Amino acid sequence: MIYELATLSLRLRSVPRALPRIEAATSAAPGRLLGCWETEIGEIVTRLLVLRGFESAAELAEERRGQLFSADPFGIGEDLTGLRLETYEKFPFLPDVEPGEYGSVYEFRTYELTIGGLPPTIDGWRAAVPGRTAMYPLTVAMYGLDGAPRITHIWPFPDLNARLEIRRESYERGIWPPRNGPESIRRATSTIALPTEISPLR
Asked: If DSSP codes are grouped into helix, strand and coil, which group holds residue 60?
């Protein structure tokens, strides 16, 4: 499966109006809506993160052309003020993303990597993920197929306090971070986002 992570910038107070339109637009388009979150901690703008899965690169390419040539991608109209579309493939040892109820908050972490840093990063994650996911599940870790060399990983948590406790314990027990992980990171960002009412991942 190929994944698209869309970042939608919206006018203030337009999210309630935008959500049913996004749900309708994605239902009528190729691909499968997996998640839709509103950012809460990070850049201070109104943003939605929309994760979709596609069965093939050809299916995603068909949808991407439609988005790029559309005056109204996602059906939001003038409430959409900015759009970034990114293409990803999951780490080869991970299962496909499955919708379900996993947490009230999600963390999106993106690491821009050094040149050649992807293979050792994946090897380190392959060894470390079983121990870390025994503590709490991982939604997905994936690498970019466009733009700068990077990975994005999405983690659910019951709440922000649980996030701190899980991360602290994983460090203290030597489970996390993965071997070769920090050495390959050029730049890292983290965003906390909350599942919206239309999100299959909650």
From this structure: helix
| Confidence band for 42, pLDDT divided at 50, 70 and 90 | low
**C-beta separation of 55 from 61 below 8 A:** no
201 is a domain residue:
no
Question: What is the b/e burial string over 109-148, where b = at least 16 CB atoms within 10 angstroms of the residue's CB?
Answer: ebbbbeeebbebbbebbeebbeebeeebebbbbbbbeeee
Q: Evaluate the omega torsion of the peptide bond into residue 177 and state whether it is cis, within 30 degrees of 0.
A: yes
CATH code of 136's domain: 3.30.70.100
Total count of domains within the chain: 2
Distance, in Å, from the CA atom of 71 to the CA atom of 80, rounded to the nearest integer, reads 10
From CA 121, how far away is CA 180, in angstroms rounded? 6
Predicted TM-score (pTM) of this structure: 0.96
**Pair 83, 103 in one domain:** no
Inside any domain, residue 202: no
In this predicted structure, which of 92-106, 135-149, 152-166, 172-186 has the lowest mean pLDDT?
A: 172-186
Residue 7: Cβ within 10 Å count: 17
Range of the domain at 6: 2-89
Element (H, E) at 160: helix 160-172
